[in-house]
Amino acid sequence: MIGGGIIGASIAWRLAERGVEVTVIDAGELGGEASSAGAGMLAPGAEITDVSIWQALALESLRGYADYVAQLTEQSGVAIDYRRFGAIELALTEEEWTGLRERSERQTFFGIPSEALSAEATRERITALDTRALKGALWYPDDAVVDPRHIMAALRVALQKLGVKLIEKSAVESIAINAGVVEVRSPEVHMRATDAVLAAGAWASGIRVSVAGEPLALTRSYPVRGHLTKYAAAPDTLQPILRHHHTYLLQRTNGPLIAGTSQEDVGFNRTVDPATEADIRSRAEALIPGLVKDQPSETWTGFRPAAEGLEPVLGQISGQPLWLAYGHYRNGILMAPATADLIVNQMVR
Ligand code: GLY
């Protein structure tokens, strides 16, 4: 397994459960990039707004998420903060309200249920909300939130218990396939395997792949930076995810409230931009006035793993012992369980 983010580690876990001998090699630490930076929204409600290649995977994953979390907790003994309180998307103008209701009708057709809420009903569900401009809201009952850092901690333990070998801080540079054998090389490691999975997120296409000495061009992967920032809040200030356009807020069970986000094409630049942080804070505080900056203040960036065409790259390279699983973009945390099942069912027959 090349890449130990939530996608690679989940595939490795499911393979090991089926008795496959697995090694995971990661350039950093298991889940050290997008998988621990993400807020952990399991929320097709606002993410899947039209029929697309994402929808089946997202909905299947959401349906199976509680089981994925329960199995992972049972095997690892690590508690995972998973909250299924739905999501609320706000309309602050008549135009937004019309747009949301149209969207809700489309989504009903492809399996995302929602319900229109009056301003009054919205206020009842989120008492801290500034409802002065509220025209209405959509309620997505199935959406949920998970702490992805807990998932990664649990995956680490589950992998170790199943005897999966973890090689961290070793960046794979090349994958060479010759006569059905895969050779994986990093500066520290030279490994042979019968099959390999490339799940290196935004870094995937930077790895040289060749078949019988001929280079193989992969769909380009690239990072889309996002900022998130944290507030201190009393537990249950916010049960559902709260969204308005590109602003979202969600809360962990023990209090911290996370607000996002930005979408920036700046390459692998991790720097927190103070202007972007201030913009997110002002958008979040306009929705929930009186939010209190976490002390010490914490704002971070993460690299969403995009792929050219903004579609996930999934499946086997035809006739070769190499599977690809990257490009999950905004929804890797959500789609990890169904991606793992998809790839593992193809690999183990
Ligand atoms: N899934 C939300 C985001 O990428 O910001």
What does this structure look like?
This protein is of the alpha+beta class and 349 residues long. It has one domain (6-347): D-Amino Acid Oxidase, subunit A, domain 2 (D-Amino Acid Oxidase, Chain A, domain 2, 2-Layer Sandwich). The chain contains 9 helices and 22 strands. The strands form 5 sheets. Strands 4, 5, 6, 15, 16, 17, 18, 19 and 20 form a 9-stranded mixed sheet that branches. Strands 11-10-9-13-14 form a 5-stranded mixed sheet, with no helix packed on it. β17 (247-251) and β18 (257-260) form a beta hairpin. α1 packs parallel to α9. The chain is elongated, with a radius of gyration of 21 Å. The structure holds glycine. Glycine binds at residues 41, 226, 260-261, 304, 330-331.
Question: What are its keywords?
Answer:
349 residues; 32% helix; alpha+beta; binds glycine; D-Amino Acid Oxidase, Chain A, domain 2; elongated
Counted beta strands: 22
Shape assignment:
elongated
CATH class: Alpha Beta
Helix content: 25-40%
Q: Label the structural class.
A: alpha+beta
Radius of gyration: 21 Å
Please name the CATH topology.
Answer: D-Amino Acid Oxidase, Chain A, domain 2
Strand content: 25-35%
Largest sheet geometry: 9 strands, mixed
The distinct bound ligands, ions and cofactors come out as: glycine
Short description:
With 349 residues, this protein is α+β, with helices and mostly antiparallel strands.
